[in-house]
Design goal:
Order of helices and strands: HHHHHHHHHHHHHH
CATH class: Mainly Alpha
Strand content: under 5%
CATH architecture: Up-down Bundle
Oligomer: single chain
Largest sheet: none
Distance between the termini: 11 Å
Number of strands: 0
Low-confidence stretches: none
Number of helices: 14
Amino acid sequence: MLILEKMLVFLILMLVGLLLAKVRVLDEPSSRKLSAIVLYVANPALLIGSSQTEHNIPGAQLLTTLLIALLMFAVLIATAAVLPRLFRLGREEGSAYALMAVFSNIGYLGIPLINEVLGSQAILYASVFILVFNVLIYTYGVMILQRAISQPAQHTASWRKLINPGVLSGIVAVVFYLLKIKLPDVINVPLGYLSNLTAPLSMLLIGAALAQVSFLSFFSDWKLLIFSVLKLLVLPILLGFVLKLAIGGGDLLGVCIIMMSAPVGSMTVMMAQQYGGDYTLLSRGVTLTTVLCIATIPIVFAVLL
């Protein structure tokens, strides 16, 4: 199965990153620099480059993608509202679980996986999800963290941060595609080279992050284990069945499945550090779901496709 092979390839790259971190070749300062390359250069190049390849995606289908992304995040937000009661969580712990439920690693893991499994034409669909993700994390995400620290006046929704590489490159990709704007080879070729950095660098960084955590500690946290099953298997399969009935198969369904099956996003940890949330719990959630997704994503694909 192609998806299993790709996840095993990603696992090997993560293990290389873990090894590099263990021998201190890939330390925290170098990881931050590589992360900036992925965030500000490689991912945007991949998004913009997706608009230059030959494919036939009607503008109406991109609008459909936007509606699906909005509905998907609405379901995740509703799920996040139920989790504190289900797990009997306190305010700060509940906010961490809410962030983990809604925001997945669609950048470092989702985009490279979509590119490898479905091809560059599917990245256009992913760019729509990224736009919605960025708007929500700096509005809904900030609101959840404000509620956790009981200081609603201390921070406001970070509207200025909506102008970031993920949003801008996503908008450029969609505009270039809809207006049939073709870049010259002298720009396209470097875009291709930079795009190819996304998967290996992302997996090395994830592996380096895994090196900082003790895996044995996860088996004593039953709440996090149950949550991981819900996030990585139950919700993706249930939502996937509904989407399969609504839109059939094709690249759009594949993109939706990957977006829903991705582990907790590392962006949640950075947001919690900035706004005073439980970033320790979030770090553990990111690590556990990232390790488990190597097995769960192929399972979800096997069930739905």
